[in-house]
Write a structure and sequence with these properties.
This protein has 16 helices and 33 strands. It is of the alpha+beta class and 561 residues long. It is globular and about 70 Å long.
């Protein structure tokens, strides 16, 4: 086993890895940005290294600085957690070239599976079912139209390097194809450096199930159960559980398919094979996440296994101490991701200072968090505050225990997803296990929450821009919020950014004539796209942002006269 490991991440996952290192007698090194100087993960680690700056590219995406930090502190290995550089084959290679150990899969397997076209071909070769589609890169919108004329709409247009909903566009009719094709290419290039896209038949309302993989070596892989991750918004998971409430008769077959895929790719360490399951119970390969998943906690609770410890043992060459036949799942576990988002406003991010935090506890309750009262949830990073996990002897006990834990949870200072979680856990579809990927955004399950908590003066709603639901933010309807944050309300014609974020699209030009409520700019913050709308009718003057710019909270980005 290693003597010291650097954790190249932040927040709850960094705390999670540091805790396991301590239990194993392994020293830990944290890296932290300017805004994370007093963070829990920096305080928990045995040593820490400051990465000056706030932007991810300067800090948690700065491969050179992270490797230098590991070398200077005498760390032998780097654990990437999830997100940031965790699925970067180039970073993994740089770590290995520096004489350090990479706690993750071989770069070759990451590259093979990270390209969705390559992963789809690999799955086909391994005998894993795939959704009908065209695996080769698509050169024109006409190819998509031709495919749809044979297989029908809707179709999914996917960036080859995509994942987590990035670079995924859905065309439900022929007149949507060209726009969706262009958008998928542009997003693929922006996020993954490639305009290559492929297409598949889009499954409406499927189950999203995933197999936890653990491979001590390329020729041996274990599957550690199947999780249901169907409750999602913006293709990002909200609730996960294991075992899945439906299609238990397909679990073993899915596990065997995942193992075949793992061996075909030469995979080592922990990973997840994700599947979509249609209403008839047919499962199809979606993608492999070549890293530890956020929801690994529910698998740990049911199997009594520390997956981070398993990762470290595999990377250090130690024996796992168990095989497939030794795995004996017991009971049921559910995880709710507590994010700094306002579900009454279409899950718009709500970064800010947590003024009060009361963690739930008691029998069968686990609370993994990277924050404490007084900490700030920065707008520069993911909105995840904590993961609330409950275990029960059966699913109903785990579910009712989750409701109790959600009642005990108190977070003040920022909005969170907790009120939505409670409604979702109580919803009839979740109770009977029939919930799907469209339950959250395709039904009125959160209608009472929106009616009770949304600002009555807010009529901006949600707008579909290039197939994606984005929140319309009208400054004229939220002057009090801006004033509370910045000291004064914006003037009547000023258009302000409600949060710090990146400008992903400018929809108007200087001099354009607009109506009140027209969308002007699309801003992205914490994985959420927000459309900033015109406060009144008039002409656009002083448009001060362009795609790729960073807008600060309260910044005037345009004026309407």
């Amino acid at each position: 086993m290693f003597t010291k490991v650097l954790v190249a991440n932040r927040g709850e996952i960094a705390v999670r890895v540091i805790r396991t290192c301590r239990e194993l007698g392994v020293g830990s090194v944290a890296v932290y940005s300017d805004v994370d100087a007093r963070s829990r993960h920096a305080q928990f680690a045995d040593e820490n290294v400051h990465l000056p700056g706030v932007a991810p590219v300067d800090t948690y995406l700065n491969a050179t600085a992270i490797i230098d930090a590991a070398l200077s502190t005498g760390a032998e290995a780097i654990h990437p957690g999830y997100g940031f550089l965790s699925e970067s084959a180039a970073f993994a290679e740089a770590v290995i070239d520096a004489g350090l150990v990479w706690v993750g899969p071989p770069p070759s397997a990451t590259r093979l599976l990270g390209d969705k076209i390559g992963g789809r071909r690999l799955a086909q070769g391994a005998g894993v079912p795939v959704v009908p589609g065209i695996t080769d890169p698509i050169a024109s919108a006409d190819e998509i139209t031709a495919f749809a004329s044979e297989h029908g709409y809707p179709v999914a247009i996917k960036a080859a390097g995509g994942g987590g909903g990035r670079g995924l566009k859905v065309a439900r009719a022929a007149d949507e194809v060209a726009t969706a094709f262009d958008s998928a290419q542009r997003e693929g290039e922006a996020y993954f450096g490639s305009r290559e896209v492929f297409i598949e038949r889009y499954l409406d309302g499927p189950k999203h199930l995933e197999v936890q993989l653990l491979a001590p070596n390329p020729d041996e892989a274990l599957w550690l159960g199947v999780r249901d991750c169907s409750l999602q918004r913006r293709h990002q998971k909200l609730v996960e559980e294991t075992p899945p409430p439906l299609w238990k008769n397909r679990v073993e077959e899915m596990g065997e398919a995942a193992v075949a895929l793992s061996k075909a790719s030469g995979y080592v360490n922990a990973g997840t094979a994700e599947m979509l399951v249609d209403r008839d119970g047919n499962f199809y390969f979606l993608e492999v996440n070549a890293r530890l998943q956020v929801e690994h906690t529910v698998t740990e609770e049911v199997l009594g296994i520390d997956l981070v410890a398993c990762q470290l043992r595999i990377a250090s060459g130690d024996d796992l101490g168990f095989g497939q036949a030794d795995l004996e799942p017991r009971g049921h576990a559910i995880e709710c991701r507590i994010n700094a988002e306002d579900p009454a406003r279409a899950f718009v991010p709500t970064p800010g200072v947590i003024t009060r935090l009361v963690e739930p506890n008691g029998l069968g309750v686990r609370f993994d968090s990277g924050y404490a009262a007084g900490d700030e949830v920065p707008s520069a990073y993911d909105s995840l505050i904590a993961k609330l996990v409950t275990w029960g002897r059966d699913r109903e006990e785990a579910r009712t225990r989750m409701l109790r834990a959600l009642d005990e949870l108190v977070v003040e200072g920022v909005h969170t997803t907790a009120p939505a979680h409670k409604l979702l856990i109580e919803n009839d579809e979740f109770v009977d296990g029939s919930h799907s990927t469209t339950t959250v955004e395709g039904s009125d399950v959160l209608a009472s929450l929106v009616a009770a908590e949304a600002d009555p003066s807010d009529r901006s709603g949600v707008l579909m821009i290039e197939g994606r639901a984005v929140r319309l933010w009208n400054p004229a309807m939220s002057a009090s919020a801006s004033a509370a944050t910045h000291g004064s309300a914006p003037s009547g014609g000023d258009v302000v950014a409600p949060m710090q974020g990146t400008v992903v699209k400018v929809l108007v030009e200087n001099g354009a004539t607009v109506e009140a409520g027209d969308s002007l700019v699309v801003l992205e913050a914490m994985k959420m796209e927000t459309a900033i709308s015109a406060p009144r009718a008039g002409s656009v003057v002083s448009l001060s942002v362009a795609p790729g710019d960073t807008a600060s909270a309260g910044q005037v980005i345009a004026t309407i006269e």
